[in-house]
Design a protein that fits this description.
The complex is a heterodimer of chains A (about 325) and B (about 140).
Chain A: H1 2-24, E1 53-54, E2 57-58, E3 67-78, E4 94-101, E5 107-114, E6 119-129, E7 139-149, E8 169-180, E9 185-196, E10 201-207, E11 210-215, E12 220-231, E13 236-245, E14 257-265, E15 269-276, H2 283-289, E16 297-298, E17 305-306, E18 312-322
Chain B: H1 2-28, H2 37-40, H3 50-68, H4 92-95, H5 99-108, H6 123-134
Helix pairs in contact in B: 3-6, 5-6
Classes of the chains: A mainly beta (about 325), B mainly alpha (about 140).
Chain lengths: ~325, ~140
């Protein structure tokens, strides 16, 4: 578990590295200092990431206008049972099918359905600025989604029944900040807000003097994701990603997520294969309800020490068409 | 039971071989690809420097290599499945063409060769690929 602590500490340093790189190396990574200054077209940096996904998070990338993308995302069970369920391959899995389209430059609209909770989601992603030498040191993109639980008898995180249709909704918003530091290395920091319409609770006071309600979770949850990509070749990259919950809830506190893997790109496809802790394939559900912890931890409610290392295998496939 | 499967298996193998031979014949065909004069005479606006060649090489690896091969010899992993000959970019038949002609063919595409003007939306990137193609000359 010491290894995980080291990784955790290294990941904590990633935002600092990102900031340092902005202040010390705000030049285009391909610029050659020894060349004489000649006026030439300054263009935004390309391919900070080669897919809209980096494992479970969105990247800063927005596909070019009139690009249609199909996503197939799969998460197996955790590897911990070993041969019993063939390291999670034969355990209950989760699948998301999605389509995205860029009707205009900088904007990407998406729709998808996830097996877990039969969750439909619609999303919008807008590239606010793109890293440009001597102009913008980073690329910034906004991502928002709304998801709707379409099960016949929906429940919330603690098993309570959902009574109102509005309680089936959840939302996620994220500001994605990324920098292509060198041609090979790109780093990204993404603070996010998840919102669940329904939480469980009970009255601690309900009389003529007023009402007080105990809620087991807060409706809104803050988190931050730190991601990195290192290109091994022009078409093969290593990926690493860490998600840290920020908001503290009275109960049901979600666990952080550590994921890492490889990405293979072709002209029209991106294949990502990885190990990680997130199972839900919905950013708000991952951030709010992740029970798989990469590290050993103590359960706040019971004081019990629990094992970490709850990793699962997953893959993402994207297919692009340009019209 | 064995006889029951023998005929479908033989038919399958015969069909497979016939199709394979046909595709072999089709591979030999390479029809002329006329390029309009205006496109042929277009000058490459992107200077051929290490930066542009590196950018072109990166795009080549993603978009072109699977058919045209790492060194442009037409021996990429998908080349055998093509109905048309992907060409040998190290030879004069390709290298004698103008930058403008190669840009036109890359942008517009034909038959198995996809059009890249939408997928690679910045024309300068296609010009960088042309700069990289020039390094494939033997």
């Amino acid at each position: 578990m010491k290894k995980f602590l080291i990784i955790k500490n290294l990941l904590a340093l990633l935002p600092l590295a990102l900031l340092l790189s902005i202040t010390t190396n705000a030049q285009d990574s391909t610029a050659n200092d020894s060349e004489p200054e000649t006026p030439k077209k300054v263009k935004p940096v390309k391919n900070t990431f080669q897919s809209v996904w980096i494992i479970d998070n969105q990247t800063v990338m927005v596909p070019v206008k009139k690009t249609l993308e199909m996503d197939i995302m799969h998460r197996f069970g955790t590897v911990n049972k070993g041969y019993e369920d063939f390291w999670g391959f034969f355990a209950p899995s989760n699948i998301r099918l999605g389509m995205n389209y860029s009707p205009i430059d900088r904007l990407n609209l998406g729709i998808g359905i996830t097996k877990s909770n039969m969750l439909w989601d619609v999303s919008a992603k807008y590239s606010i600025i793109t890293q440009t030498p001597k102009k913008y040191p980073v690329s910034i993109t906004w991502y928002s989604n709304a998801a709707y639980d379409t099960r016949k008898e929906p429940t919330i995180y603690d098993g309570s029944n959902i009574k109102h249709s509005s309680d089936r909704f959840s939302y996620f918003h994220q500001l994605i900040i990324a920098r292509k530091i060198t041609d090979k290395l790109s780093l990204q920091a993404s603070p996010g807000i998840s919102h669940q319409n329904a939480v469980s609770g009970y009255f601690t006071k309900n009389d003529s003097t007023g009402q007080e309600i105990y809620r087991s979770m807060k409706n809104t949850h803050l988190s931050i994701a730190i991601s990195g990509r290192y290109k091994l070749t022009e078409v093969t990259s290593l990926m690493i990603n860490y998600d840290q919950p920020i908001t503290k809830h009275p109960e049901y506190n979600p666990n952080p997520n550590l994921s890492f893997g490889v990405e293979f790109n072709t002209s029209s496809h991106s294949f990502q294969l990885f190990l990680g802790n997130y199972f839900f394939l919905s950013p708000q559900r991952n951030n709010l309800y992740n029970t798989n912890n990469p590290f050993d931890y103590t359960d706040n409610a019971t004081g019990e020490k629990k094992d970490g290392g709850k990793f699962l295998i997953g893959f993402n496939i994207t297919r692009l068409w340009n019209y | 039971m064995k006889k029951k499967f023998a005929i479908p298996v033989i038919l399958f193998i015969a069909g497979f071989l016939t199709l394979g031979m046909l595709s072999g014949f089709i591979n030999l065909e390479q029809k002329p690809w006329p390029v309009p004069d205006a496109a042929k005479n277009k000058k490459n606006p992107v200077a051929s420097n290490p930066e542009s060649i590196a950018a072109g090489k990166a795009l080549w690896s993603t978009h072109c290599k699977s058919c045209h091969g790492t060194k442009g010899l037409g021996d990429g992993s998908k080349a055998a499945q093509l109905k048309t000959e992907p060409g040998d970019f190290s030879k004069a038949v390709v290298q004698s063409q103008t930058d403008g002609a190669l840009f036109y063919k890359t942008s517009e595409g034909r038959d198995d060769m996809p059009s890249f003007k939408k997928k690679i939306s910045d024309a300068d990137d296609i010009w960088s690929i042309i700069n990289f193609m020039r390094t494939l000359k033997k």
